[in-house]
Design brief:
Number of strands of chain A: 0
Largest sheet of chain A: none
Strand content of chain B: under 5%
CATH topology of chain A: MetI-like fold
Number of domains of chain B: 2
Order of helices and strands of chain A: HHHHHHHHHHH
CATH architecture of chain A: Orthogonal Bundle
CATH superfamily of chain A: MetI-like
Radius of gyration of chain B: 25 Å
Largest sheet of chain B: 2 strands, antiparallel
CATH architecture of the largest domain in chain B: Orthogonal Bundle
Oligomer: heterodimer
Shape of chain B: globular
CATH topology of the largest domain in chain B: MetI-like fold
Strand content of chain A: under 5%
Helix content of chain B: over 70%
CATH class of chain A: Mainly Alpha
Structural class of chain B: mainly alpha
Number of domains of chain A: 1
């Protein structure tokens, strides 16, 4: 668009402010996790690792992190695989009600978390699963697989659909064509989807809180801390979760962007 | 020969089913199932603190005639609508800058930067805002330093808006940017060639053409704000009881799940109607 230099600069400056607004809460969290004062405000007190020491000595926190890792390590592969299957089916086959299935598969992240939480809690307690790790895993797969499907479907839309058929015309079986054409061209986006599913599972707090009963993940532990009192220990756990999820998301973005720039060349 | 063909057809069908079935089956079992149960649950009874399957309308009657439900409903809708409007207004300049004033490379980096916070712990970010806004918190001290006395900013409508824009802004910016980037650039050139100034180009060409993205962005912001309970709880201090807080409190403090189910179904109905209306408006021909 042709606009004056001032307009351009003002708009870009505003965009910068929006970024500051989004990153300020993340940055202050790191600062206060290392600040010796119990009450978080300015001016800052001294430097300390005390809050990290406290949470690492807290059995509840450690157990919560262990649960989080166990859950994510099951949720991410399963959700990625199912998301991939659905994306591939949508790209490759035509069947009755395909659009409907697709819309349905994208719905879970749009339903309010407390509503899903309540529905899941009622359902899972009927089948005797509520209050267990499997209950959390089952719900996380519902919440994360739409993200996996969306990312991988996006990648499929860039692949030439005739390649796979060409391979089959040349005598390759379904599987051979799949191995030769589909796997090489989707593997980075599958990895990206995997990382994204881990990040979403890692940060989910609401449904987990509803269905998990006494089983806590690190996010639910944060929720419990928040319900009791202000404490820099929340900042310390927060820093660990931020580092983890930001690494996962940056990893996913790197994979997707590298693909895009490679294609552009 | 026919049997070979049949076998081949069968194996093709099996191959197709293997890919197309897992996710729908899983979602039917663990998403549709719970949602259907939620509807049924709203007609159940609670006897001696025990849930009893039943078919009675009392829960609906109780909730739909309760003053506290409708005031929470109106409050939730008003908060979500304001947050959606605010997020849309804040996002627009950013989406315009991303789409029109940056090189493709810088554009991807910036979009990436906006996406990252969306997938980081919302709980901790809201806790951070609590630190900023609380009595004797960072904002109060900074204001005092330049000579403005304020009280605690927590539990105010401003705090709610800060929390909800934190939640929704990344999403709105991405949706608007996608819509602006896919818009036909020759339209803009044509408008300039016809002698339109930048302002006229923006309001007469760019914004109308990007309407689907702007409306969908606002819709998503509304959906997420409508269902959120973290901001209302930790930045609103429980002063602003929303529908989500009603559900969470009911479920966590007792056995009245059927009434919570009624509230939940009212939320879903509202979101569904809002979504249908917005989508109809977004893609309406002019």
């Amino acid at each position: 668009m042709r606009v004056t230099r001032t307009t351009r600069r003002l708009t870009l400056a505003f965009t910068g402010l929006a970024l500051v607004f989004l990153y300020a809460p993340i940055l202050t969290n790191f600062v206060f996790s290392l600040n010796s004062d119990r009450f978080p405000t300015i001016p800052l007190g001294g430097f300390t690792l005390e809050w990290y020491r406290l949470i690492l000595a807290d059995a509840l926190v450690i157990d919560a992190f262990k649960n989080t890792i166990k859950i994510a390590l099951i949720v991410a592969p399963v959700a990625t695989l199912m998301g991939f299957a659905a994306a591939y089916a949508d790209y490759r086959f035509n069947f009755l009600g395909k659009k409907l299935v697709l819309v349905f598969a994208l719905m879970p992240p749009l339903i309010p978390l407390v509503v899903i939480g309540l529905a899941m809690l009622a359902y899972l307690s009927r089948i005797g699963l509520s209050g267990t790790l499997p209950a959390i895993i089952v719900s996380h797969i519902v919440l994360t697989s739409p993200f996996a499907m969306a990312i991988i479907r996006l990648r499929f839309s860039q692949i030439d659909g005739d390649l796979e058929f060409a391979a089959q015309n040349l005598g390759a079986s379904n599987w051979r064509a799949f191995r030769a054409v589909i796997i090489p061209s989707t593997k980075t986006s599958v990895l990206a989807a995997f990382l994204l599913c881990m990040a979403v599972s890692f940060d989910e707090y609401a449904v987990t809180w509803f269905v998990g009963g006494l089983e806590e993940t690190s996010s639910v532990r944060i929720l419990s801390f928040l319900q009791s009192a202000v404490s820099p220990r929340i900042n310390a756990i927060g820093s660990i979760t931020f580092v983890t999820s930001i690494s996962l998301i940056l990893g996913a973005q790197f994979l997707v962007l590298r693909r895009l720039t490679k294609d552009a060349k | 020969m026919t049997s070979l063909l049949q076998a081949r057809r069968l194996s093709r069908a099996a191959y197709g089913a293997m890919w197309s079935l897992p996710l729908p089956v899983w979602l039917a079992g663990f998403f549709l199932g719970p949602m259907v149960l939620l509807i049924w649950l709203s007609f159940w009874d609670v006897k001696n603190f025990l849930l009893t399957p039943d078919f009675q309308l009392e829960n609906w009657q109780k909730i739909l005639t309760a003053g506290y439900f409708w005031s929470a409903y109106a409050r939730t809708a008003a908060i979500a609508a304001s947050a959606a409007a605010l997020a849309t207004l804040v996002a627009l300049p950013c989406a315009l800058a991303i789409s029109f004033f940056l090189s493709p490379r810088a554009r991807m980096v910036l979009l990436g930067l906006f996406v990252v916070p969306f997938f980081t712990s919302y709980l901790v970010r809201i806790y951070s805002w609590q630190i900023y806004l609380t009595e004797n918190g960072i904002v109060m001290k900074l204001m005092a330093a330049i000579g403005i006395e304020t009280g605690s900013l927590l539990n105010t409508p401003l705090a709610l808006m800060i929390g909800l824009v934190t939640l929704t802004l990344p999403l709105v910016i991405v949706i608007q940017s996608i819509s602006l980037l896919s818009l036909d650039r020759t339209l803009i050139d044509a408008a300039y060639n016809l002698g339109c100034g930048p302002r006229r180009v923006l309001f007469a060409t760019v914004l109308p053409a990007a309407r689907p993205g702007i409306v969908l962005g606002a819709l998503f912001a509304f959906i997420f704000s409508f269902g959120d309970f973290v901001t209302a709880t930790y930045l609103g201090g429980g002063k602003f009881t929303t529908l989500s807080i009603l559900i969470a409190d009911t479920v966590k403090s007792g056995q009245q799940w059927p009434r919570a189910a009624v509230v939940a179904l009212m939320m879903i109905a509202t979101l569904l109607l809002t979504a249908l209306a917005s989508i109809a408006y977004a893609y309406r021909r002019t």
